[in-house]
Amino acid sequence: MRNTLTVLAVVVLLALIGGGAVHFLNTREEGEQGNLAESAPSQEEDNTAPEQPDWCPRVEFISAPGTWESAADDDPINPGANPNSFMLSITNPLKEAYVPEDVKVWTLPYTAQFKNINAQHEMSYDDSRNEGTSRLEGELTYMHETCPDTKFILSGFSQGAVIAGDVADRIGGGNGPIPAESVAGVALIADGRRQDGVGINPGAHVGGVGAEIALQPVSTLIQGIVPGATMRGARANGFGELADRTFQICAPNDSICDAPLDVSNGLERARDLIDANGVHALYAYNPDVIDGATANQWVTQWAKDTIDAQ
């Protein structure tokens, strides 16, 4: 009898253990399935490109004025720091031709100074150029992030041409603030880093180079005349992907963009940077830069053609 009870007890115990094990395994399986279900994404990822807000312009024309033709606190939409700024002879006709909702015309506000032996109180060329570059890239970054379909046209004169050209070179080289396909064109007038054969010359042949290239070998020597003005030489990328739509306009004998490579008279040539000879100041009137038009007339018409093609 005792053996029988013992056997029955063992059978009951095994049944309880087996039932508990089955319940445990079933519960665990359900839990694992539940966890797997929870980890699965509830919906597919949205890979669609961001939409262009209705207020965004079709094109933005960015103007970079030259030395002493802008100010850090100037109004980029209605600039007034220098009413005689050369770039106004381009931007004003564009503002008259297009409504701002279609074409945004934005003028770079930066200090635009050039510390030299005759103006020790001014911001150095390096600092002015760096400030302008940062602000221009900031505008491009903001607008491209906000309005991804907007196309950009970059243009500049003198120090502004150096700034716009530097930014265009980085964009064309693939390391700029916006992709190259967002840039419809670039027009540089009197670029201090101009190289013969880099970009497109729509006008008269010039045999020299930009002053920053010509004076690079004596950059240290000329610091007494133009302190804080580093002569950096040629740009790294030759405008890269933008080379086929970057235009370089330079008047023959302009010491800023058509400087001879001979550096034997480097100090004298550094003084030319300060004086900016008469040729440099006459792009709005000089008929010998581009056949049939002054430089500002040519850029204005080119900009209109480029805008209308977008």
UniProtKB/TrEMBL annotation:
SUPFAM superfamilies the record matches: alpha/beta-Hydrolases
Keywords: Disulfide bond, Hydrolase, Serine esterase
GO molecular function annotations of the record: carboxylic ester hydrolase activity
Protein name, as recorded: Cutinase family protein
InterPro entries: AB_hydrolase_fold, Cutinase/axe
Lineage start: Bacteria, Bacillati, Actinomycetota, Actinomycetes, Mycobacteriales
Tree of life domain: Bacteria
Gene source species: Corynebacterium hiratae
Annotated region described as Disordered, given as residue ranges: 32-55
UniProt record similarity statement: Belongs to the cutinase family.
